[in-house]
């Protein structure tokens, strides 16, 4: 009996020990998990706080709405006495040779409110007003524009390929300074369009505004490249800027999405994904918040009351491009209250 009783006591003791060990292990595990969860929660919270602080610290405040309204409309914010403006796309490229001083004068004569033109550089770093990467489409030159000097560019005819070349003979590619001077002389507002990120453009545009303070209330700088807009406003936060966008801008050459940039399926899918991310970053308000852009310039196939109101509710102005139909222009200006960029001031 004693032997049996002793064995039973030992077994009971062992069982109790195992149970206590299991409870102890479970308790330790639970405490570890709980502490880890708390640490993880604190870690996530810290990361979120730091991320929000970093975004806020890196973001650039927008220019005052009264100044933005004056740049776009020519009146103070809240003054609805004026219709939204019409800007001549490259100086109204259907009415005169694009991006020439003759086009700017013709646009003024035809009652455009402002001029949109493109900034690029020659091989010797002269800032000029020209749209394409190459010379063939609009001049009697050949090859990339950044392969020739300004003196060589100046000898080219910028009107010879235009249907109205006889009316506007031997126009030259103007410098940025010449184009700005002419627009100011004509009393026009300006949209300076920078086609790609270029540190030279940041420096040149910043210098231009500092030397001509009237541009702060007369000119808007726009680009598809949000990193350019950010760099420019980080350097000179007083400049009113616009983010330009169209669906598929990174994937397709054209608004109708018929000419993809890349033949490779992998590259095409990669840029399609990049376009999706860009779309979300823009329409969530993240890019306007970070860059402090006051305006979005959006292709006219996106225009609707709902779309425009979504931007206005964020305090962001809208300009649409490129609209040549007279009825569409009237609808955008009168009903949607957005500015219009057009190739022609004549009915179309």
From TrEMBL:
GP-PDE domain location: 84-348
| CDD domains from the UniProt entry | GDPD_GDE1
**What's its catalytic activity?**
an N-(acyl)-sphingosylphosphoethanolamine = an N-(acyl)-sphingosyl-1,3-cyclic phosphate + ethanolamine
The organism's place on the tree of life at top rank: Eukaryota
Q: Which GO biological process entries does UniProt record here?
A: ethanolamine metabolic process; N-acylethanolamine metabolic process; phospholipid metabolic process
Name the SUPFAM superfamilies for this protein: PLC-like phosphodiesterases
- Its recorded name reads GP-PDE domain-containing protein
Q: Give the originating organism.
A: Rhipicephalus microplus (Cattle tick)
């Amino acid at each position: 009996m004693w032997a049996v009783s002793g064995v039973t006591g030992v077994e009971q003791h062992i069982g109790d020990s195992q149970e206590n060990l299991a409870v102890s292990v479970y308790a330790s595990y639970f405490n570890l998990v709980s502490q880890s969860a708390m640490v993880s929660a604190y870690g996530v919270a810290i990361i979120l706080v730091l991320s929000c602080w970093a975004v806020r610290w890196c973001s650039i405040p927008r220019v005052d709405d009264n100044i933005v309204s004056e740049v776009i409309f020519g009146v103070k914010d809240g003054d609805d006495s004026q219709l939204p403006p019409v800007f001549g796309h490259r100086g109204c490229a259907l009415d005169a040779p694009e991006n020439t001083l003759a086009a700017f004068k013709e646009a003024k004569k035809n009652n455009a409110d402002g001029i949109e033109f493109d900034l690029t550089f020659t091989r010797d770093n002269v800032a000029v007003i020209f749209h394409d990467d190459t010379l063939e489409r609009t001049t009697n030159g050949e090859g990339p524009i950044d392969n020739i000097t300004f003196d060589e560019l100046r000898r080219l005819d910028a009107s010879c390929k235009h249907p109205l070349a006889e009316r506007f003979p031997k126009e030259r590619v103007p410098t940025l300074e010449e184009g700005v001077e002419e627009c100011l002389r004509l009393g026009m507002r300006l949209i300076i369009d920078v086609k790609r990120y270029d540190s030279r453009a940041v420096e040149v545009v910043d210098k231009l505004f500092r030397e001509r303070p009237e541009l702060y209330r007369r000119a808007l700088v726009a680009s598809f490249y949000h990193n350019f807009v950010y760099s420019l406003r980080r350097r000179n936060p007083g400049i009113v800027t616009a983010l330009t966008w169209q669906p598929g801008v990174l994937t397709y050459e054209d608004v109708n999405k018929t000419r993809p940039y890349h033949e490779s399926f992998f590259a095409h899918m990669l840029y399609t994904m990049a376009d999706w991310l860009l779309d979300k970053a823009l329409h969530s308000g993240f890019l306007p918040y970070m860059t402090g852009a006051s305006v979005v310039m959006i292709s006219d196939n996106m225009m609707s009351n709902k779309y425009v109101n979504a931007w206005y509710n964020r305090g962001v102005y809208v300009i649409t491009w490129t609209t040549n139909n007279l009825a569409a222009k009237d609808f955008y200006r009168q009903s949607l209250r957005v500015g219009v960029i057009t190739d022609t001031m004549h009915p179309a």
